[in-house]
Design a protein that fits this description.
There is one protein chain. It is built from 8 helices and 15 strands. It is α+β, with helices and mostly antiparallel strands. A hairpin with a 5-residue loop joins strand 13 and strand 14. It starts with a strand and ends in a 6-residue tail after the last strand. The site of magnesium ion has 3 residues, from loops.
Length: 280
């Protein structure tokens, strides 16, 4: 599996290994980390090289921004969208510009590190513009007279503001994705499926809590209707006659609302516990 050696995707990629319960043997200055407890080896690369490395089979899978996948146009399958490093590729112009729509870009010079995606956007909107490819610090080019506009990654937009630019068109949105070589052997595909299964078990548990409470037996029907759970709540008798312990899973989103309802329905001694993994 190829992952980014350093940069914005590295931390998220390493966190996925941890969530999947994969322990890596990490040495100093290593380009490769084997896993101790999973048939996997990590290759550390620059993100630009990951789509090609996976397409050519030097790595079977990789973790990379969708923006790089779209830019490189290599033959890889998106095995799973990973939900982190969300950003968009946008066109931005100097703040004082009276922007009228895509036609504004006709005859303009646009600086970018993503010429291929930009070219697709220009063609789609029938705009003739000059693409100026630069790697890094794209956002300063209008200020120093290198370009009229930029096409670059935006997330919060604060970089644009500090360079007196405004976002005027979003071409694509992106997040980290798990990409795979399209011709994986069945054995490798099975390893990939197991990896994805583990990630999904952790993801499912996110935003969910395990709840335990005590209730008088005659209130269990009402309390159960407030707790949807995975199937139905677990109900166990307490040593105190006429009382039970009720266990279930609830979503964090409507947590406080449900706690209020449970208390009004007669629940006592409510415990709420984080869930690490959920497997169906
Ligand atoms: P490398 O040295 O590996 O080539 P890089 O400088 O090209 O690294 P990074 O800045 O680490 O790349 O960004 C890697 C990826 O993270 C981008 O391709 C994009 O998918 C995502 N990304 C970049 N900037 C942001 C941001 N501000 N917010 C969220 N995600 C981002
Ligand atoms: Mg890069």
């Amino acid at each position: 599996m190829a992952i980014q050696a350093k940069g914005r995707l590295n931390e998220g990629s390493m966190k996925l290994m941890e969530e999947a319960g994969i322990d890596l043997i990490i040495g100093r200055r290593n380009l490769v980390s084997p896993a101790k407890n999973f048939p996997l080896e990590i290759l550390y690369l620059r993100d630009d090289d990951i789509p090609q490395t996976v397409a050519y089979g030097a790595a079977d899978v990789g973790i990379v921004g969708e923006n790089e996948v779209l830019e490189r146009k290599e033959q890889v399958n998106i095995a799973k969208r990973l939900g982190f490093s969300k950003c968009r590729l946008s066109l931005a112009v100097p703040q004082q510009t009276d922007y009228s729509g895509p036609a504004w870009f006709n005859g303009k010079k646009i600086a970018t590190s993503y010429p291929s995606i930009l070219n697709d956007w220009l063609q789609k909107h029938q705009v003739q513009a000059e693409i100026h490819v630069i790697n890094g610090s794209v956002e300063i080019s209008p200020g120093i007279g290198l370009a009229d506009a930029i096409f670059d990654i935006v997330s919060s937009g604060s970089t644009l503001v500090s360079n007196r630019l405004k976002e005027v068109e979003v071409a694509v949105t992106s997040e980290a994705v798990l990409v795979a070589n399209p011709t994986l052997s069945p054995a490798k595909q099975a390893i990939l499926d197991e990896f994805i299964f583990r990630l999904e078990s952790v993801q499912r548990a996110e935003g969910k809590k395990y709840i335990l409470l005590n209730a008088p037996n005659e209130k269990i029907g009402e309390i159960s209707s407030i707790l949807p759970g995975m199937k139905s709540p677990t109900v166990m008798p307490l040593a105190t006659e006429g009382w039970s312990s009720v266990h279930s899973v609830i979503a964090e989103d409507d947590f406080w609302e449900n706690i209020g309802k449970l208390k009004r329905a007669g629940a006592e001694g409510i415990l709420v516990i984080p869930i690490e993994k959920m497997i169906f």
